Amino acid sequence: MDRYKFGFEVDDGLGNQQYRHEKSKNPWQVRGSYGYKDALGIYRHVNYVADKNGFRVIIETNEPGLRGGSKNPASTSIQTAYRS
Questions:
Q1: In this model, does residue 34 exceed pLDDT 70?
Q2: How far apart are CA 69 and CA 74, in angstroms?
Q3: What DSSP state is assigned to residue 65?
Q4: CA 51, 74, 54: angle at the middle one, nearest 5?
Q5: Which of 1, 5, 67, 74 falls between 20 and 30 A from 28, CA-CA?
């Protein structure tokens, strides 16, 4: 059973969407995701964990400027994907 759960989703009807979901079974471990997709199809999806080992994320995106392989600053893993 989750002790904490939070989330929302927004769609403006013009093709732009945003969301965030987060949950925790104990006060020292939180898991969640957030992201967006715009009317042109550009998206970013972030999964994250915050626990005794710090804050870690995995990012999936097709944002311009990130083509040509993943670049992983700090403890971030960025996975680029291109969908048509």
A1: yes
A2: 16
A3: T
A4: 10
A5: 74
Confidence of residue 84 (pLDDT cuts 50, 70, 90): very low
Q: Residue 76: what residue type?
A: T
- pLDDT score of 64: 84
Phi, psi angle pair for 8, to nearest 5°: -155, 160
First to last CA, the chain: 39
Determine contact, residues 26/14, Cβ cutoff 8 Å: no
Give strand pairing partners of 22: 6, 32
Q: Band of the pLDDT at 74, cuts 50, 70, 90?
A: low
Q: Enumerate residues 6+ apart whose C-beta is below 8 A from 2.
A: 23, 24, 25
